[in-house]
Amino acid sequence: MGPTGDEKGAVRLETVGARRAGADIVVQVVGRALNVALGVVATLVLVRALGDEDFGEWVTVFAIAEIVGFTGEWGLEQLAVRRAAVDREREAEWFGSLLTLRLLTAVPTALVLIVVLFVIADSAEMRATALIMAATMFTAAASSVRVIFQLRVRNDVAVVIMTLNSVLWTLAVVAIAGADGGMVAFAAAFLAAYVVTTGIQFVWALRTQPLRIRGSRRLWGGLVRAGVPLGVAGLLTLAYVRIDGVLVFQIAGADEAGLYGAVYRVLDRVQMVPTALMTTLLPIIAAAWPADPDRTRRLIQRGADYLALVAFPALAFTIAVPEQIVVLLFGDEFRDAAPALPILMGAFVAISFWHLAMNMMIVLGRQARLVLYTGAGLIVNVILNLALIPSYGFLAAAWITLGTETLVMALTMATVLRETRNRLAVGRMARAALAAAVMGGVVALLAEAGAGIVALAVAAGALYAATVLVVRAFEVSDLRALLKRP
């Protein structure tokens, strides 16, 4: 008996993905790095325009919008990619099912967001911002068509759209700040940029792969059954990720929330690297498992090695010069936030490996187990924040974030390694840690000698790149493989 249509689709995806994966990751990282740079500019201008108190309100609105908005996502995009990766004959229906489900859930999520924000709002501006943000629930639903590019390992298209959005948003922030606009004007500009770029993405996606709405409803059941536990797990994750900022706002006040929110934005931005890696690897791994467990294990190992190469130097650099980084990014007004930055970069290390483990749990169909792990993380996070924020403020929230992310990552990764009968080799990761430690030590010495932050950043990049090659944490052959195109 020959291979089924599903099996043929999986093989095709694996073959194409293997050839394109390296270049796709590089394009994403470079493109997302550009978006991070634009985001930093926008955040700097926004922070200085609003001040610490209004910025505290701004980040609180966004934190709650993200938590509530996730109730309309339920991990459906990742599930649709997984299903379409092995069921190529019905991929148009899977994508149609995804879109209609997302639009259906946008209405209740928008209403819930308005109610929650109106309850906690401290000002009329904050309530008006809430109404504007509610409209983004519908835009987010329409943007789910980006999974079409992910399945085809054409994430460069998504990066182009993302970059356009960043450019529009940054220009709008600069213009509004120059005109002394307030929070409501910034929120309106955010929505406008999102609507424009989502519209472009929608048209582009439909020209790549037409959706099939008719008949897609019968696939709702499969997505919902798998999506409920994944969605609950994702909501719990988002809750413990964002609840600390809300609790800092409620317990310690808007000033501390603004300090914490500023450095937390750095953590948000650097997550583009694990996101880029797993955006590329998810459909490839989904096609490989369970037919080719050896290939799956190799992909997991390579993913862990690459994540270590990026996460460890980020931690080392922020340990060496946290105050200089914060003052450069946010100004002297936010100097007091500096001690939280290296703590949150420690959390970034755990988050990076969690991205890999969480996506593997989806491939393995262990979404229900994720609920247990993320639920435990939320309980630990809330209890410790309530106990420690009154005495120690936002620094307590930073340490609790590190502990929570490490706990959830360890539980999730242990399950993945057990299910795939995998034992990660730590050699390259240990060498990456060594290279990062060397770089961090030299940067700290240069800072003591009076070097500026720009010179320190350049020196850190050059030194780390050279050191990882010397200790063989990364080799020239790896670079050739990454840059290889079909």
Describe the protein's architecture and organization.
There is one protein chain. The chain has 486 residues and is an all-alpha fold. Helix content is 84%, strand content 0%. The protein has one domain. The protein is built from 18 helices and no strands. Helix 1 packs antiparallel against helix 4, helix 13 runs parallel beside helix 15 and helix 14 packs antiparallel against helix 15. The N terminus and C terminus are likely disordered.
Any chance you could write out the topology, listing elements then pairs?
Elements: H1 5-70, H2 76-86, H3 91-120, H4 124-142, H5 147-151, H6 155-178, H7 183-208, H8 220-252, H9 254-270, H10 272-288, H11 293-320, H12 322-330, H13 340-364, H14 367-392, H15 394-419, H16 427-448, H17 453-470, H18 476-483
Summarize the structure.
The chain is mostly helical. The chain has helices at residues 5-70, 76-86, 91-120, 124-142, 147-151, 155-178, 183-208, 220-252, 254-270, 272-288, 293-320, 322-330, 340-364, 367-392, 394-419, 427-448, 453-470, 476-483. The radius of gyration is 22 Å and the shape is globular.
Uncertain spans: 1-19, 482-486
Helix content: over 70%
Biggest beta sheet attributes? none
Give the terminus-to-terminus CA distance. Answer: 31 Å
Give the key terms.
globular, mainly alpha, 486 residues, single chain
